[in-house]
């Protein structure tokens, strides 16, 4: 864990610390779409301007959400905490649980307009793509993903899915 480049969340292109490409990209895409829709009222030029302005604003908002959920800190938290969770099964190592946690905390901002149950189909597909060598099937990984999802939500401003958690 002592890799300072990884810990600094460096931008993959510029190398600048504090980059959050997932949060920025998600925010830019969502707000760009919304800006285009609003701008469409003013015609084709309004659509283009609205999309550009929305993407910039959304990118900045997404970066803020990305900064709220630090992947290095989340990995360290779950590495320490996973054995205390009610779903923990001692036949599995942290390496088995890690992809499930990562899917939860990395995708909370991506599916910000939904609660866990509404996003579960996509989260399951995300887990299947990300699980690597994990021995957990989705039914075993689901609770770990949900726990990381709710922890990440608590780190973000507000209660996006309005479930009180």
Low-confidence stretches: 1-6, 59-66
Order of helices and strands: HHHHHHH
Shape: globular
Strand content: under 5%
Average pLDDT, all residues? 76
Radius of gyration: 18 Å
Task: Explain this structure.
The chain is mainly α. It is built from seven helices and no strands. It has helices at residues 4-7, 21-39, 44-68, 71-81, 94-107, 116-130, 138-155. Helix 5 crosses helix 7 (138-155) and helix 6 (116-130) packs across helix 7 (138-155). The protein is globular, with a radius of gyration of 18 Å. It starts with a helix and ends in a 10-residue tail after the last helix. 33% of the residues are buried. Residues 1-6 and 59-66 have low confidence and may be disordered.
Key phrases:
7 helices, about 160 residues, mainly alpha, about 65% helix, single chain, disordered N terminus
Question: Could you give a quick summary of the protein structure above?
Answer:
64% of the residues lie in helices and 0% in strands. It has helices at 4-7, 21-39, 44-68, 71-81, 94-107, 116-130, 138-155.
Write the layout of secondary structure elements.
Blueprint: H1 4-7, H2 21-39, H3 44-68, H4 71-81, H5 94-107, H6 116-130, H7 138-155
Helix pairs in contact: 2-3, 4-5, 5-6, 5-7, 6-7
């Amino acid at each position: 864990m002592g890799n300072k480049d990884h810990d600094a969340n460096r931008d993959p292109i510029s190398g600048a610390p504090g980059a959050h490409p997932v949060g920025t990209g998600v925010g830019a895409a969502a707000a760009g779409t919304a800006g285009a829709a609003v701008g469409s009222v003013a015609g084709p030029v309004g659509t283009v301007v609205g999309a550009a302005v929305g993407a910039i604003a959304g990118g900045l908002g997404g970066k803020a959400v990305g900064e709220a959920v630090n992947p290095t800190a989340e990995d360290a938290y779950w590495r320490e905490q996973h054995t205390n969770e009610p779903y923990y099964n001692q036949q599995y190592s942290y390496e088995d649980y890690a992809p499930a946690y990562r899917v939860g905390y990395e995708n909370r901002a991506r599916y910000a307009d939904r609660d866990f149950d509404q996003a579960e189909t996509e989260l399951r597909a995300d887990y299947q793509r990300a699980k690597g060598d994990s021995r957990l099937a989705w039914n075993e990984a689901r609770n770990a993903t949900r726990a990381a999802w709710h922890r990440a939500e608590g780190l973000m401003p507000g209660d996006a899915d309005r479930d009180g958690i």
